């Protein structure tokens, strides 16, 4: 079984995916590394732009019959059996990406993406089996256990668990609303 762990950058994908893979005894796959190994994607403005069709081809070819946890913010666009969308309060995304030294514009883009559920919307557009998990105020260990519990119960779809518009005021400082220049 292939499990995609997706979500906005900074949401905690890599941390949780590694723990989950370990708990399940599955292979852990970093999608960016997988892409580089197969010469997929182009470096543009310091960022790797991945070709999803090409990536899907290689996932089908090499991982189809394996048990693996695939970590990446585009993993929900791939031919996987289960998608897990990790959610985290956009304010925390803003804080984490600031710590990573992301430029203000990039931080704003990602905080906004989390606010308006971009990964979730894309995931449910493509897959039936989509589970959303809110990682806010939980340890990575707790989040991995929660995912494991849902999978063990045979729950394949669980969406609509967060609404960040309720906390919009807290997010404003991270948004690039224009007017400054
Ligand atoms: N549940 C959590 N609680 C506290 N800190 C977390 C949690 N999940 C991740 N982190 C921290 O947040 C940062 C981003 O996590 P990471 O797994 O790299 O996110 P992603 O892979 O989605 O970009 C890391 O410094 C990580 O240690
Ligand atoms: Mg990561």
Can you characterise this structure?
This protein is of the alpha/beta class. The protein has one domain: P-loop containing nucleotide triphosphate hydrolases (Rossmann fold). It has 8 helices and 7 strands. The protein has helices at residues 13-24, 31-37, 52-63, 90-99, 104-115, 118-126, 140-152, 168-171; strands spanning 2-6, 27-30, 42-44, 47-49, 68-71, 82-87, 130-134. The mean pLDDT is 95. The structure holds adenosine-5'-diphosphate and magnesium ion.
Rg from alpha-carbon coordinates? 16 Å
User: Which ligands accompany this protein?
Assistant: adenosine-5'-diphosphate, magnesium ion
- Assign the CATH architecture: 3-Layer(aba) Sandwich
Q: Which ranges are low-confidence, i.e. pLDDT below 50, for 5 or more consecutive residues?
A: none
Q: What fraction strand? A: 15-25%
Largest sheet: 5 strands, parallel
Mean pLDDT score: 95
CATH superfamily: P-loop containing nucleotide triphosphate hydrolases
Share in helix: 40-55%
Lateral strand order in the biggest sheet: 2-5-1-6-7
Number of domains: 1
**The CATH C-level class name:** Alpha Beta
Order of helices and strands: EHEHEEHEEHHHEHH
- For the secondary structure, the number of strands is 7
Distance between the termini: 50 Å
Q: Which structural class is indicated by helix and strand composition? A: alpha/beta
């Amino acid at each position: 079984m292939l499990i995609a762990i997706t979500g906005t950058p900074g949401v905690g994908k890599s941390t949780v995916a590694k723990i989950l893979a370990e708990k399940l005894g599955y292979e852990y796959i970093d999608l960016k590394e997988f892409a580089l190994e197969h010469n997929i994607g182009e470096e543009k403005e310091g960022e790797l732009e991945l070709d999803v069709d090409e990536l899907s081809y290689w996932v089908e070819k090499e991982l189809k019959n394996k048990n693996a946890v695939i970590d990446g913010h585009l993993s929900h666009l791939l031919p996987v059996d289960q998608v897990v969308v990790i959610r985290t309060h956009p304010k925390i995304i803003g804080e984490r990406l600031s710590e990573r030294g992301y430029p203000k514009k990039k931080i704003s883009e990602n905080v906004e993406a989390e606010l308006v559920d971009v990964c979730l919307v894309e995931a449910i557009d493509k897959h039936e089996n989509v589970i959303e998990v809110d990682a806010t105020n939980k340890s990575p260990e707790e989040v991995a256990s929660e995912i494991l519990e849902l999978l063990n119960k045979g729950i394949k779809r669980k969406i609509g668990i967060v609404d960040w518009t309720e906390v919009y005021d807290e997010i404003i400082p991270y948004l690039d609303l224009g007017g400054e220049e």
